[in-house]
User: Which sequence fits this backbone?
């Protein structure tokens, strides 16, 4: 009897232990994040604001990996992709270097007469046009022969050097505004002759880059004067051309906001430096917005809120001018931080760039740009991702680029996802941890930002879902339940694409190879394949019940899913 009672006690205790562990597991199991999409509630056109890219070094354009990447970018979009690059007027031999580029379009003979040479700038623009891309034709920087302070002119900056070393003779106002205007006039006329009027009418022309900081060594008024001369030259050469500016950075800074408003005041009511009339031509408004990552306790912490506050302030300033409010806006650089050529090895806060932190940040930030534009009632046309490639650099060095040595990084696959989304934006119920207002104020420091962006056209819908946090930690996956309402079909096909540690991620594959700096041809082929956008599962047919479907899946931290629903 005693033995039986002891055995019963042991067994009951074991059962209680098993039951307790089961209950504990049930308690720690995450509740699915419920995301509800209503296809019947449209939120406006899904403008391809993501289909805009740019970079500092224009001579990378026609190099081997540059041409390869531009081809891939052009192929991921249903619409023409716009490309913005610096240094179209810079004097030099056309040899690429970090934070440097040159085309040698303008020199002068011994008598001071202009000599125009379009060979290199044509090589750059030909590369775009051959791929169906469109230039944002940047007027700048100052040719050596026209600079009011030409020496020193060529810089030799490299990562680790003082960033201020790059601002040399090319950053100064002209010694002759008339000669500079004639250069602009001749460039536009040449472009029309080479590419045709209809093509050039589809471009955007702009003056300079970030004239509110050291990219411009003149005064605000000198920039405005140069804008008047440049805009007049563009319009004289092609009256239907589109010209814009001022490409200020950080509109949430007081000094930048002042520059921005001074420029817009002049455009609206100032005395034109060329014509003497009131106002200046302005067809598009441009400014820049950047985040501010840091290393906190050994971990990279992003700051999307800083970038969104810049965008919010820029939209607020534009919206305050009734005559300008409906003009298209291009965020000429829209990125997690400022220096694309500052590598991870010297700037540890940039360690987000190679892996899924960059891709999830991109997925989470672009829909909020749409929402901010809606909130201010402004016309957001595009947001330029200032990232391209850096030719012949170490593999995965941690530059802010889309590919390394011809191998695509995870972030490029977010743009492939965006390329499969068109039609109209539709409602995503905002009962989740973050909406754009909370994210703008607080960034993502508490709960994870698990949310979605959804579009639909006549025959399909697309839902992008991300699992983002400012802290670059890989924690356990989160269960997600996506419910689509208003599905006007009886049966749909679902395709599920994924970016995470195991999918669409050449960086993780490269690390598993041992991080080779001289990979074999076979390894490169493997990396190229791993860099493409991959599906999580095979396509599935799903029955629609009462115009609803429900899709459940686990989404890893810093992961992004795209659900394509086709009927």
Assistant:
């Amino acid at each position: 009897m005693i033995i039986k009672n002891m055995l019963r006690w042991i067994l009951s205790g074991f059962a209680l232990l098993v039951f307790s562990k089961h209950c504990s597991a049930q308690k720690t199991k995450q509740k699915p994040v419920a995301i509800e999409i209503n296809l019947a509630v449209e939120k406006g056109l899904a403008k391809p604001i993501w289909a805009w890219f740019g970079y500092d070094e224009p001579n990378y354009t026609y190099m081997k990996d540059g041409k390869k990447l531009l081809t891939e970018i052009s192929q991921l979009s249903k619409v023409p992709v716009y490309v913005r690059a610096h240094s179209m007027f810079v004097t030099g031999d056309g040899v690429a270097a970090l934070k440097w580029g040159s085309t040698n379009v303008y020199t002068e003979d011994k008598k001071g007469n202009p000599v125009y040479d379009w060979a290199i700038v044509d090589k750059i623009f030909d590369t775009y046009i051959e791929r169906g891309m469109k230039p944002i034709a940047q007027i700048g920087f100052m040719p050596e022969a026209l600079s009011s302070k030409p020496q020193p002119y060529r810089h030799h900056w490299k990562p680790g050097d003082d960033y201020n070393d790059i601002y040399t003779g090319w950053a100064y106002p002209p010694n002759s505004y008339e000669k500079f205007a004639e250069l602009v006039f001749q460039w536009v006329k040449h472009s029309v002759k080479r590419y045709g009027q209809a093509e050039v009418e589809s471009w955007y022309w702009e003056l300079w880059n970030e004239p509110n900081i050291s990219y411009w060594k003149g005064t605000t008024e000198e920039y405005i004067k140069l804008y008047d001369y440049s805009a007049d030259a563009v319009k004289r050469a092609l009256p239907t051309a589109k010209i814009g500016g001022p490409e200020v950075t950080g509109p949430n800074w007081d000094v930048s906001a002042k520059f921005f408003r001074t420029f817009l005041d002049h455009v609206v009511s100032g005395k034109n430096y060329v014509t003497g009339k009131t106002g200046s031509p302005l067809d598009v408004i441009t400014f820049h917005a950047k985040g501010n990552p840091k290393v906190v306790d050994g971990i990279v912490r992003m700051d999307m809120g800083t970038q969104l506050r810049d965008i919010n302030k820029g939209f607020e300033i534009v919206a305050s001018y009734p005559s300008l409010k409906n003009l298209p806006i291009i965020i000429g650089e829209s990125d997690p931080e400022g220096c694309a050529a500052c590598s991870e090895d010297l700037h540890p806060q940039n360690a987000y760039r190679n892996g899924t932190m960059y891709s999830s940040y991109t997925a989470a930030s672009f829909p909020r740009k749409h929402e901010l534009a809606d909130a201010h009632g402004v016309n957001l046309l595009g947001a330029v991702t200032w990232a391209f490639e850096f030719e012949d650099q170490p593999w995965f060095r941690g530059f802010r680029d889309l590919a390394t040595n011809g191998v695509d990084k995870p972030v490029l696959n977010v743009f492939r996802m965006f390329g499969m989304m068109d039609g109209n934006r539709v409602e995503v119920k905002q009962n989740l941890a973050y909406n754009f207002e909370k994210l703008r104020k607080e960034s993502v420091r508490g709960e994870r930002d698990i949310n979605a962006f959804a579009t639909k056209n006549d025959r399909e819908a697309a839902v992008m879902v991300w699992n983002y946090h400012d802290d670059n930690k890989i924690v356990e996956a989160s269960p997600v339940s996506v419910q689509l309402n208003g599905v006007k079909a009886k049966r749909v096909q679902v395709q599920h694409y994924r970016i995470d540690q195991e999918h669409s991620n050449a960086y993780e594959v490269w690390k598993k190879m041992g991080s080779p700096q001289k990979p074999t041809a076979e390894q490169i082929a493997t990396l190229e394949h791993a860099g493409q956008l991959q599906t999580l599962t095979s396509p599935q047919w799903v029955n629609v019940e009462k115009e609803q479907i429900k899709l459940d899946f686990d989404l890893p931290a810093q992961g992004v899913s795209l659900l394509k629903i086709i009927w």
Q: What stands out?
A: The domain at 33-42+422-566 is CATH 2.60.40.1500 (Immunoglobulin-like). The CA atoms of residues 91 and 104 lie 4 Å apart. Residues 1-28 have pLDDT under 50 and may be disordered. The chain has 13 helices and 25 strands.
